[in-house]
Amino acid sequence: MDFDYTENILETIESYISKGYKPVALEITSDSVQLDQLKLTFDSKILLIIGNERHGISEMVLDAVQTKVHIPMFGNNSSMNVSQAAGIALYEFSKTFLTFRQK
Asked: Is 4 a residue whose pLDDT tops 80?
């Protein structure tokens, strides 16, 4: 799995968009959809954006990214460990790709 560390996240997002990636922010927002409701195709190229555990993804990045998803949780939880969240998101994405492969 590829990853990038960058000083200018907006430039990096634009660079990936120009390469055909769809940026997806993993953050609970007023317009986020449940992770399992995200519509993907077999050839989807995803740029998964994950914030840190304390502050999440910055408003600047959220404003620049059209697709926002969240992990549905029971109770009054609003966050989880970033590595656990990434694992859940990647697992959910892989289920979509496996579904296409089995057809």
From this structure: no
